[in-house]
Amino acid sequence: MIENLTILLxxxxxxxxxxxxxxxxxxxxxxxxxxxxxxxxxxxLVGPKSFEAVTGSAVYTSLWNPSDTQFTIxxxxxxxxxxxxxxxxxxxxxxxxxxxxxxxxxxxxVVVAPATANIIGKIANxxxxxxxxxxxxxxxxxxxxxxxxxxxxxxxxxxxxxxxEILKKMGYExxxxxxxxxxxxxxxxxxxAEPQDILEAIEKIASEFNRGECxxxxx
Length: 219
Hints:
Elements (H helix, E strand, L loop, with lengths): L5 E6 L5 H13 L3 E6 L1 H6 L2 H8 L3 E2 L38 H8 L2 E7 L1 H8 L6 H8 L5 E5 L3 H4 L2 H12 L3 E2 L3 E4 L5 E5 L3 H14 L3 H7 L1
Helix pairs in contact: 1-3, 1-9, 4-6, 5-8
């Protein structure tokens, strides 16, 4: 159901970031082409190399001073070989100075897991101060799924709930958070949905939206 689906996976600085590696692995095993964008705080919790290893794709962390790799990877529509030997995907082609736009143009579906209170607030208020938030600002017309994860006190904050409602009105779909053991040891709502549940939500979204143009592009 997700075979050849191009998915942009955003990973933010929540403790649940380690679960995003499993999600990326499951998506890739299902045949999806996954490109990961990580925030600085996410990189403090999980190494970008973990995502690179399970997806076979480069990981993007900054709008500034990108590596040469970002400008030599292949066009999804080209006949050129993948970015590195053995890779199972064709990555997006980047134009210097517009990494975020190239990522959005490439992706059929955008997923953020975990989605912290910080990134939820940025999206709801149009704040663009890093690669992920800037990319999310540009992807408003794409199918989007967020998997919130935070302490229960943060999730229940009226400001966060206001931002969540704004995102729903903007067309974002949310899965979770769920009740369970949080990083602080409390049993409460705020835990990120499990990777398998997120995968099933992605499969449901993929089955609902029209991918005719993308299918033609691949054929």
